[in-house]
Amino acid sequence: MAGKDVIGSLLTGRWSRIGLALAAGVLAALVHPPFGILPGLVAYPLLMLLAERSTTVRGAFWVGWLAGFGYFLVGCWWVAEAFLVNPAQAWMAPFAASLLPAGIGLFWGAASALYRRFAPASLARVLVFAAFFALLEWLRGHVLTGFPWNPAGAGWRAGSAASQFAAIAGVYGLGLVTVAAAAAFGPLLTPGPRKDRIGVAVAGATVFLALIIGGAIRLAGAEVRETATLVRIVQPDVDQESKWTPEAYRSIVERYVNLTARPGEALPDLVVWPEGALPASFDDVFAPGSPDGAAIARALRPGQTLLAGFARGERGEDGRARYFNSLIALHDEGGEGLGVAAIYDKHRLVPFGEFLPLGALMSALGVRSLVHMPADFSAGPTPAPISLPNGSRVQPLICYESLYPGFTPAGRGRPEWIVNVSNDAWFGATSGPIQHLNLASYRAIETGLPVVRATPTGVSAMIDPWGRVIDGQRLDSGESGVIDARLPEAKSPTLYGGFGDVLFALLLLTGLSPLALARPGGLR
Length: 524
Fold this sequence. Notes:
The protein is of the alpha/beta class. The chain is built from 18 helices and twelve strands. The chain has a six-stranded mixed sheet with strand order 5-4-3-2-1-12, with helices on one face. It has a six-stranded mixed sheet with strand order 6-7-8-9-10-11, with helices on one face.
């Protein structure tokens, strides 16, 4: 009894609640790679109890916001690294590292407030907590273009047994089930019939076991079959801060050209360069008479296709210049130069990185000069696969786009593989590139498609349709080289690939269903 009194005082004391809320966020963040501390899942029942013990809905909002701030501070601190590339912007790094968590922490605050307002007094409130939390996670990934970094489900390392549930319900569905299973241990520290509370905790443990055992069975039958297509992934190890001098530019072109042309056991059919490979636009690199375009053409052999990330410009119908962050397929047909076989323009752009929200107003306020963005990129059309000269269909995802489930079509439009090109050099040897790899790997699990991932400084990898990096086919941060690998075959379409978030929506409705039976007043 005394133990429960101590716990009660910790959950109701002002300063202890602040500390516990921040600790909950930090613990939840440490579940994600590169940390992988799974006991951090205790954060979710802790947050649920803190919301329950809040005397007001407003109080529940603030404990949720504090937890979200701690979570995203640990999970997103690496954004500050991008502002250190340019010394003139270094003063903005602390603001970026704190304002981003403060902003997106509002979603955690809203989830806690909704739970406090509507949760029933019964033990079914565990499902309600998980459902509200998952709903706000989904909204975080969609509102104002969304920021789906490190959803709760991605705490399981992609390719692990538990992560395989994403093939059924996606990463958001996996997050809902994970949070519900963890939160089921919370009632052990609350009043009520002991037998019922233990029964809920046992149910939570059973869900965890089902995730792991079910995923292990799926992986036991996972056999990677190689296609005849040989892919070369190029990683030159070019730091972002060392790209902008004429001398550096010459060296960068030489690195890409030499790695592309490096002899191997067999001639690659496809060569993949990362996003923004060269610090120059496609129009300049391949202008008539350009020595750089000629050097790239010489590095390729007849029949080879280069997939390379470039910025490019074009004139719109109104005569104004428009700029795109693009993946361009260049094919060597054996003649002079290279032919453009396909172009994919990035659809989901990064706010403040590739476009300035409320651009006219922000420019008038002088914000554009602060972020060094002379012009915005334009968004490309809705993501769709492109066809390559070798007959394969591929879904490009440029950098940030690999965070979003559902960008790869199923059915008749289903591609054979996904290519994710990114410029993670902005974030150095931080946790950011490792977490980005993990998130991109979930697109493989959800779709049943292999993912080819190329970055300039790591992590580049060949990922199989179960989200696993294939042994020996990975280049980590700071490594320079190539990965020559046969493209894995796609597996059969997954349930998530066919139905998208439908099962997630059904899980949400199930989690919120106790509200229909709850007596008025709930936890109040």
